[in-house]
Amino acid sequence: VQLVESGGGLVQPGGSLSLSCAASGFTISGSAMSWARQAPGKGLEWVSGISAAGNAFYADSVKGRFTISRDNATDTVYLQMNNLKPEDTAIYYCNVQQYWGQGTQVTVSS
Fold this sequence. Notes:
Elements: E1 2-6, E2 9-11, E3 17-24, E4 33-38, E5 44-50, E6 56-58, E7 66-71, E8 76-81, E9 90-96, E10 99-100, E11 104-108
Parallel strand pairs: 2-11
Antiparallel strand pairs: 1-3, 3-8, 4-5, 4-9, 5-6, 7-8, 9-10, 9-11
């Protein structure tokens, strides 16, 4: 099983990024998926999750700005991030069951 995140980068405050997480060796349908992040010098923080049925959940810190979605046909989960803030700077990880991706860096800075 492999999870590969992509879409990170450097963006100015107020900007947007769209992260993708592609699963291989695993069919995501039937499993909840989630995104977590780790900011420099801090612990891992849960950001968002989506159930197998498509119900979405968000941390208070990102609610109203981030949108999680999934495409079971391509075994991909997405995280659309709008109105980004410097405090969103972190490595973002995709997770399903016990599997984690390698992470993608998001830096929000002017």
